[in-house]
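re: ur question from yesterday

yeah so i grabbed the chain u mentioned. its 96 aa long if i counted rite. heres the sequnce exactly as i have it in my notes:
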Amino acid sequence: MKVRCIKRGQNIEILEQLNNIPDGTEIIVDLEIVDLEFIENQIRKPKQPLTEQERLAKVNKLFGTWKNQPELTQIFAEIDQERHTYQGRIIDSIDN
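ran it thru and got these structure tokens back, copy pasting raw so excuse formatting
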């Protein structure tokens, strides 16, 4: 069954009578957008590749995010310790 609807905020208003569906019935709605202008506006245009200077600026910005954070040394030390700690493994006994 297809019915026409209009989205208003977070609500979808059905434009047709649905007398054959009782109140309180759970329904699943398959959305199809019929406004082609809306669809065309949502299509992303391919981004232009970054110049070498723009790439370098982004990398430098990323490197600066952890600058002046003394707790990082402790965090990485804990990670290193956990990675090198033998956890052992459980072996199922053949007696059971």
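noticed a couple things. The longest helix spans residues 71-83. also The two ends are 58 Å apart (CA to CA).
anyway ttyl
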